[in-house]
Every structure is written in C-alpha cells, then in structure tokens.
Specification:
By secondary structure, this protein is of the alpha/beta class. Helices cover 56% and strands 10% of the residues. It has one domain. Helix 1 packs across helix 4 and helix 8 runs parallel beside helix 11. The chain is globular and about 60 Å long.
Length: 296
C-alpha cells in the first residue's frame, strides 16, 4: 500500500505545481519568449532569480545548467510554490479523498466509475482506494506520467536548499492548492475526469513531447503544448480551469514573492507555465518596477 500512496502523492504535487492550463494572453513583445532562468533586479537590492521548472524525474531535467546552479548556490533564500515538508504532503494526501460519505461512484456514473477503476488499476491502485477519490484527484493522476522516485526537480532543489541552510519560503499554502480543485463545482470536476478518460491517447502524445519542449527553453512552445490539452475540454470548463489553476495563482505568487525580491538574493522556482504572457509572473514583476532579464 505504501508504494502507490507515495507515488500518488508526488503525482498530485507535480500536477499542482505545473499549472497545466492555457494562457490566452501570451505576448512576446512584453517579455522574451525564451529562457527558463531570469534575473530580477532593482536599484538598491541584490538581484534575485526566477527559474521555471518542470516537475519531472527525467535526468535531463534534473541536470540543471551551470547558470542555474550558480544562481541557486549563491542565493540566501529559496522560494517555491509550496514547501514540501512532511506536514504539507500529508495534508495533500488527505485532501484527495472524500471524508463526508460521498464516493467517486456517487458523484459520477457507472461508466466513468468503471473506467476510472480500470485506468488506475494499471497504475497499481486498488478499487478500495479509487472508490473514495475525488474526481479531480483521479484526473490528476491519469494526466501525469508514472513517477518512480518522487525526486522531481522542485523536490531536488528543496532538499538541496535545506542541506545548504537556506531560508525556505512557500508562496502558497496546502489548503490553497487543494482549494484550486475542491472549489470547482462537481460538474466541472466530472467533466474534466470524463475528458481525461476519453482522451488518453492524445494525453499520452502530449506527455511524450513535454520534456523535449521544456528542454528547448521556449516558453511559447510550453504554452502551446498546454493549449492543446485545454482544447480537449469544453469551453466553459477550460475557462474555469484556466482561471483557477493559472491566472489567479500567477497574481498570488507574484504578489507573495515581492518581500523576497525586496530582501534580495533569492532563488525562486515555479512551474515554467507561470512565467510568460501579460498575465504571467515575469510581466507582473516587471510592472512592479523590476528589470527582468533572461539568463538561460
């Protein structure tokens, strides 16, 4: 039981951090479309860096560039979306399951329920666990590749920050990340699950391309890949999903990283899709008076 519980936990954390949604306001005139590492500077403060991550175990992703490593090692403060300590990961795990008497079957139908059970059985999850999962937790697991170690890029940076004695700051609470999904109406959750179940082949194609596109450092290509996922959804569902998972969080994260930027010498790691566009974190930070410069 322990193995699939741990795998499920990290799959959820990865999905929440990626922010897999479509940003319709990408504008290359505002911020360059190329670069994962960005220098954030303002007179009177020590420069900080924002690094767009991909929450992957792929060795090519984990082998960060010299520029990223140098910026990370030199930083006094490490900022991430949610601190990955034991307390937070336990809350994430608990939040994936109904605790009010409802079940996956009671909020869906026989077809969706049976498809979910069969699909998650292929990931080693027994029906007794699937039965009490929320719809969003099921489509989260089904939308992500298999996780073997749980040591994705953000987790690796977090562990390194602790070993190096850096101050660690989280931009979001566990409850806020869970609320992104829990506050969706049940119809939207079920619609997302049904689309995920019916679009397995297309999702697999998208997942296969993700790493190569990330390694290209091209933010517009990252955006376009996620747009393909959103195109699988009904328009109203896609709009709500996009607003909750990306746009609202961009504003919150950019606002909450300001104290670290004012303090200076911070290394901020967030999902790469949060970076580009007029509503992206880089533009918000630039509008706050900082010089934003691509490094790598």
């Amino acid at each position: 039981m322990k193995n699939y519980r741990v795998s499920l936990l990290f799959t959820l954390v990865i999905f929440l951090f990626v922010g897999c949604a479509n940003n319709p306001t990408v504008n290359t005139e505002k911020i360059s479309s190329t670069g994962l590492l960005w220098k954030i500077a303002k007179p009177g403060t020590t420069p900080s860096y924002i690094f767009g991550t991909m929450h992957s175990e792929d060795k090519r992703v984990l082998e960060v560039s010299e520029a990223v490593n140098d910026a990370f090692v030199a930083a006094n403060t490490f900022v991430m979306e949610m601190v990955l300590d034991d307390s937070n990961t336990k809350k994430i795990m608990q939040g994936m399951y109904f605790d009010d008497g409802r079940t996956l079957r009671s909020v869906t139908n026989d077809k969706i329920y049976r498809q979910s059970v069969e699909a998650l059985a292929q990931k080693g999850m027994p029906e007794k666990i699937v039965r009490i999962m929320k719809p969003w937790a099921v489509f989260t697991v089904l939308s992500m590749p298999e996780q073997k170690t749980g040591l994705f890029l953000d987790a690796m940076l977090y562990e390194a920050a602790l070993k190096q004695g850096k101050d660690v700051v989280g931009l979001e609470t566990t409850q806020e990340q869970l609320d992104v999904f829990d506050e969706m109406n049940m119809k939207t959750q079920v619609s997302l699950l049904e689309t995920t179940l019916d679009s397995a082949d297309e999702l697999n194609k998208i997942l296969e391309e993700t790493t190569d596109i990330y390694l290209s450092h091209d933010l517009l290509k990252i955006h376009d890949l996620n747009a393909r996922y959103m195109a699988l959804l009904d328009d109203d569902v896609a709009e709500e999903f996009n607003q909750r998972l990306l746009l609202d969080r961009n504003i919150n994260m950019a606002t909450r990283m300001m104290p670290s930027l004012e303090k200076g010498n911070a290394f901020i790691a967030i999902g790469a899709l949060h970076l580009p566009g007029r509503t992206g974190v880089l533009s918000i930070v630039k509008n706050a008076g900082y010089a934003v410069t691509p490094v790598d």
